Fold these 2 entries.
Entry 1:
Amino acid sequence: MLRWIVLCLMCIVWPAHAELSIEITGAGEHQTPVSLVRFAGDPLLAQSMLEVISNDLSRTGLFKLIDPVGKQPHKVSEVRAAEWPGVETLLLGTIQEVDGDKLAVRFSLFDVVRNAELTAQVVTAKRAHVRTIAHRIADLVYERMTGSPGVFSTRIVYVNRDQDNYRLVLSDSDGYGEQSLLTSKEPIMSPTWSPDGRQIAYVSFERQRAMVYVQALDSAQRRLIADFPGSNSAPVWSPDGKQLALVLTRDGSSNLYLMGSRGQGLRRLTQGYAIDTEPVFAADGQSLLFTSDRGGSPQIYRLSLADESVQRLTFETGSAFSPRVSPDGKGFVFSLYKEGVFYIAVQDFETGQAQILTTGGWEKKPSFAPNGKMILFATEVLGRGILATVSSDGRVKQKMVAQRGDIREPMWGPFLK
Amino acid sequence: MKRLILAILLTNFLVACASSKPKEEVVAPMASTQPSATSSEADAQAAQAAADAQAAADAQAAADARVTQGAADELAALKSKNSTHFPFDVDVVQEADHEIILMHSSYLAAHPDVKVRVEGNADERGSSEYNLALGQRRAQNTMRALVLGGANATQFETISYGEEKPRCTEHNEACWWQNRRADINYDAQ
């Protein structure tokens, strides 16, 4: 109980209308001390933006946010370095209303120590999209400070189960802007993003057994693409978006199949009585990683699409499930089940070295943020299904708890195009 | 011993139902009233034959009703004991479930028009997709056992719910055991 109280002291409280509440623990190896000065312009808009940017940067664990304590420079020329002891970087700017319903936000990222402007840009968008603008600014700040693109403008998909009410949910990566893509009295599983971020494929039991649907996000049109006898599940897109791999039991056992992205042309990839499941494409699209118990216990294997040869990848003590390849293609994340506990682990392709990133629990279904810096996964706290993230070096962790229901089966979406 | 008790119970069911039925009335049709000295004996014989036929028909109806009631009881008994259970990560039908298999396969063999859906499940100790596949195997192996026991493969659909429709959600063996099962469902759409 005491640990919970301590953790909460470190947490940042989000405004009540987010569907998810987020708690952060841990810190990056180095935390840059930054101060965010509320932008000049409409105070309400400025305050909203300040909150969104603060929350975004805090969630990374890479920044130590220092309160400006009354100082309000809005331009670089107004900054007095001596007034900012302990602060390395300042964010300041102005909000202007333009063209009736638009905002033009001019911001500057300033290095107080070296007395140099790191970047200055203008972000313009409709007034209604305050959060979008703020996320974009946070992305640009993050990128300038770390060298990696920010993921604050990305979205996630997951399943909310509340008694026997199931919802497929799409939200911003901070839990805001929740949309129900599907509501059902029957289970929903395994949602997966298309590479262009425009479609979600998933498994629905609405017709009394597992079948695969593809749904467009902008039109809510959905297509049933696999209803073969038995179970149809585990859909995943190829990196070029032209094919889907999935798991069918139509030929008597759980095997991997390939089909065109519209459900055309079926090619069987694996044979045999073993359970083969959870296929994912390698970054070059030339092979699939998958889970199989062909060696006696569930482990991760790689199948070459050219000759259908299979090679085992995981050799850790315990069973391995649910592989997902890192965006840079150098390794993969998976769920390791060892001595009754599930952990999230990453493994490098070249060295074959695996590293456990989490302290263990019911940790399943990991996926990378598109910048490869964070991993989203499902876990449980006090009997409730929640989502969590861990930074790829294992140092920074978040818990994301829904207002109601158990949340599970998450996947992080791609960069917006 | 269990089998003997089950048999006795079933028999008692049938007997109890039979004795609770009202006594069938045998109604003789009205004999023809046409006076005829020469056909009276034939008439009497015809009347007797008709009465016998009616009695036979009524007795058959009573027997059919007993059979229908017995069948309904048999199906109820089957539905109340319709799950095979499995050890962790195992999908082979267990020795302990052989009686259940025999019960259901006998019934299915005797009623070739009856169709069932075998639904496999798994406990939560794996990924949801792996558990979907494990449940499918459990359903298929249960079906195979029933076919070996005399049912016809055309009487079956096999599906899996994996870990998606658990009977309980506690993280302990008592709950996990409940979820590691395949159900023989007579009421599927």
Entry 2:
Amino acid sequence: MEKIKTAKERWMKNFKNSKKRKEFFYTLSGIKLKPLYTPDDVSGDYLEKLGFSGEIPYTRGIYPTMYLGKFWTIRQLAGFGGAEDTASRLKFLIEKGVTGLNITFDYPTLRGFDSDDPRSAGEVGIGGVAIDILDDMEELFKDIPIGRITVSLVACNPVACAAPIYSMYVLTAMKKGVDLSKLDGTIQNDFLMETLVTHAPRMFSPQYSFKVECDIVEYASKNTPKWHGISFVGYNIREAGANAIQECGIVFAHAIAVIEELLERGLKLEEFVPNLSFFFCSHNDFFEEIAKFRAARRVWYKILRERFEAAEKLCRLKFHVQTSGASLRAQEPLNNIVRAAYQALSAVLGGCQSLHVCAFDEPFSIPTETSALVALRTQQILQRETNIPNVIDPLGGSYFVEWLTDEMEERIFDYIEKIESRGGIVKCVEIGWLHRELLNSAMEYEEKVESGEIKLVGEEDEQDIEIFHPPDILEEQKMKLGEFRKRRDPHKLNESVSRLKNACREGENVIPFVMDCLRAKATIGEIVSAFEEVFGTWKPRV
Amino acid sequence: METKSVEKKIKVMIAIPGLDSHWRGAMVIAKQLVKRGMEVVYLGNRFPEEIVSACVQEDPNVLGLSFHSDSYRKLIPEIIKGLRENNLNPVLVVGGSIPKRDYPFLKEVGVHEVFGPGTSFDYIAKRIRELVVPSRMK
């Protein structure tokens, strides 16, 4: 060590006297980098900090074999038009080799409006699939073997969307004869999506949104034990402006709050912790992202172990990654293929369980068949052609990566502390503190781009790419809804809706009541209106 | 008619029409325009009729609308119709991820300027100043 130190000092003198592009370099989240890393930059005990894959503290991966046993799941997003349109895209993706499904919903569905509601104007079937009624969900999965392929439902808002969508999915699975104890997949169900990350003309309060979120996790852990009742969203927080540290800090502060709430409700850790999953972003800063994923596993392990005294096997952080849509540019859009490929590589070197690669036309529209295929092929090239997945945690032991992993870990814990010292995650949303945090980070980033401190590649758009236009399904969906409404028993419907409202007032778990409403042929809009009547609405303090 | 005072700040109202949930761009622009000496009323996400009634109340010089979905085809004409019905004629600017090929459509229905992805804040502020001055002279 002494020898290295002396040699390093000599080297440093030489380095300082040489001309450099810039005096100092920083990661995207502002961590100051050294020019070169050596053995004295990493400290601590190997077994304590790194160990082996599948063993605590899981820094090197949560499974013993990682990608040597099974590749990460290729889970590409799809959703547009009506159920039939999306089903045909899903079949196309399955045929081309995706190993998991990932369904997006249009804004009206995400915000709990029926397609024929005037407030849905211009958005029906545009950014995702339009789902209004149980029949739509059944049609979507009619020919999809949901007992065999895992499905992720990007139904983010607990009150406005996840509660009815999860309920519909379970009823659909039952009708298809799928054993609920084996039903595998994920519903996003994150109250931060409803209150912090995405804004809307009608918003539900953090308090109620968090409550319904926990209802879904509780119900799922009891009735669909292999299903992930929540996917803590770091991704969209990042896309809204957060940096990598804030992304993880917010996600873990949130997860802590959910664990505390469910313990309060009388559940045991082993009953619901396996149902918790996570969703992170992979952005442009290649090594920072890898360090983030590795640090996140260690942070989660420590939280569960030290705070909640969970069994070792419960402390594994399972996560999905999506490459950053916000980092993609409208200028020279084909360059986005390269950006997304580097980001995907970060995710894989970081040990993700499943991955979505954004299509290059993301800045303009949802993907065409061509761009969706390039994104899928990006993953297949990584899996089949690069040999990268053949060694576990290949960057483990890199002086730089280990140093950065330690830095990230420390800063993530600091950020969790910041949130908890302000009363916890729900409070921080209620008072608008987190909205300001995201906005300030977004401002900082945009100003750096404007000043040229962050340099982005690509000039004024000369490439004329194809833009996807989803089919116009509004009239068709309106007719379908009209017919559907005629076919139901209004008395039964009213009864079930008033039972749901009552359950909301009494603070009961709402999911069984939502299912009853669906059986009585309620639409999503009607269910969410019932929530609105009892819970009221909320405006963020921004 | 308001007094033509040079010192008077340009009043900009910024909204995200309809159910589009992206707010980062609109909010960042709002802050940047404030930094550049304008008065900004940030409405956030609102339905078209709410935007029109806010304009009736606030009478902004500029209405800035942010879109990350192609609902602008439907919602912008609706908003413009509402403004005209109330004899309002603010400078109308639109920003967000809008393909260039749709700019002519937007200009045709009455949008004064479209700021695509990557437009600098300085340029946006400069264009707004250019557009507002003549309309105030009327």
